[in-house]
Task: inverse folding
């Protein structure tokens, strides 16, 4: 192979350097799953204790957001427990009262 026809240019190679970890938005992005996890647990406990179906559904929604935004390297036990708690809140709220959910703002309009 002729070196004059080689399109590679070793003098133009640049070694990859990862971005610095001093970025504040990186830290805020990591906190979203943890916030959603705490909010999901609070709403699922409110749904279980107060028998509010909308709280149970909000807890399930927060648990899904937490699960979707979590990195694969993090421990999944707390996320799974929050997810199962929110599912049990939805199931228990419908077992106690199988009527369709009435949104809180619908009772104000009547």
Result:
């Amino acid at each position: 192979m002729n070196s004059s026809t080689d399109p590679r240019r070793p003098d133009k190679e640049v070694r990859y350097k990862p971005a610095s970890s001093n970025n504040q938005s990186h830290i805020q992005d990591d906190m979203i799953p943890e916030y959603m996890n705490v909010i999901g647990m609070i709403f699922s406990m409110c749904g279980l204790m107060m028998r509010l179906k909308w709280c149970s559904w909000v807890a399930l929604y927060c648990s899904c957001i937490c699960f979707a935004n979590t990195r694969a390297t993090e421990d999944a036990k707390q996320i799974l427990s929050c997810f199962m708690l929110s599912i049990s809140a939805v199931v228990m709220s419908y077992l106690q009262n199988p009527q369709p959910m009435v949104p809180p703002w619908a009772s104000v309009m009547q």
